[in-house]
Amino acid sequence: MSIWSDVKCPVCKSPGAKQLLWMVKCPHNGCDKYDPDLALEARSRVTASAHSVPLTGSFNPGLNAITIRYRNAAGIDKTYTGDKTTVKAANAHITICLVPTGKRCSFSRERIMNLAEITPYIPPADKLSSVDRQILGYHQSKGTTSPRHEAVKQKLGKPA
Questions:
Q1: pTM of this structure
Q2: Which residues are within 8 A (CB) of 31 and not within 5 positions of it... i.e. 6 or more apart?
Q3: Side-chain half-sphere of 119: how many Cα atoms within 13 Å?
Q4: Residues 134, 137, 141, 143: what is their CA dihedral angle, to the nearest 10 degrees?
Q5: pLDDT tens digits for the chain (160 residues)?
Q6: In terms of Cα–Cα distance, which of 29, 98, 50, 30 is closest to 70?
């Protein structure tokens, strides 16, 4: 048991500060009461707890499995397995549900090393521009059509 009590720093209001009588140590490096040892201890506690939880789950894509080769921001190459039926495009990212948890994860297109293998599984609607989606939505809700609407439908591969 520690004689230091957990408090909110009285100077910067950051959580995780320690106090003993009138002495205060703060893990926030911009604070007047900053203590590098406390900051290191807090950082190692967070890192250890994040890595100590093993991923478990029963998500299995079966025949729909696809492998993503990805280089993360630190330059480390990683391989992920996901379900190709869950691939979605989101601006500069691609999202997919991963094994074993089935949770959706986002990948930057710039860092996916096998992007050409994944793009065929992006639904056609995700390949449309925002203007094209707006045109489709408008004409679908009104039950009307226009030459531009027909051109967008052809992009999707739908009969005109």
A1: 0.52
A2: 9, 11, 12, 14
A3: 10
A4: 100
A5: 567 778 888 888 888 888 888 888 888 878 888 888 887 777 666 554 455 556 778 888 999 999 999 998 888 899 999 999 999 988 899 999 999 889 999 999 999 999 999 999 988 776 778 898 899 999 999 999 999 999 988 887 766 5
A6: 98
